[in-house]
User: Fold ATP-binding protein from Actinomadura rudentiformis.
Amino acid sequence: MNTRLQHAAQLVQACNGPVQHGRVQGRIQQYECAFDWRPESVALARRFTRDVLAELPDETVGDAQTCVSELAGNAVRYTHSGQPGGSYRVRVERTDAYALVEVTDQGNDHGQAPEIQLGGTESGRGLWIVAQLGDLTTIATPDGHRVSARINLPNAHPADGSG
Assistant:
């Protein structure tokens, strides 16, 4: 295991759950960690993402960190995940063609998945930023929201041969 992945494993010990190291399905590697409700956990989620994706191009790693920062920040600010005792999960997936970051939170009283807001609003711009960096998907689940961004790697060819 490389040094950054070892560091990611150490970070996880400060979180609420174990990381699933290198769960490989075909050519997909997945890593997942639970983070607690404290705003400081967003920095840990960023570092976890950076360490897991360390072998990818710097631009991809930076974009993934920005996405996780926005999505984890939203979970802490706008959902039950940000209340004492709350938590959210970060899943990072990597392949030869893309990196995917996903945050699953504990929802809010509205039950709706977050939406991109443009214009003069104070909130919603983070999702707009995420959508500019990757393919944004938001899903309302029975227990909360699952929001992900898929970031295509430079010079990668889609698995379906369309590129």
Observations:
- The mean pLDDT is 82.
- The first helix runs from residue 3 to 13.
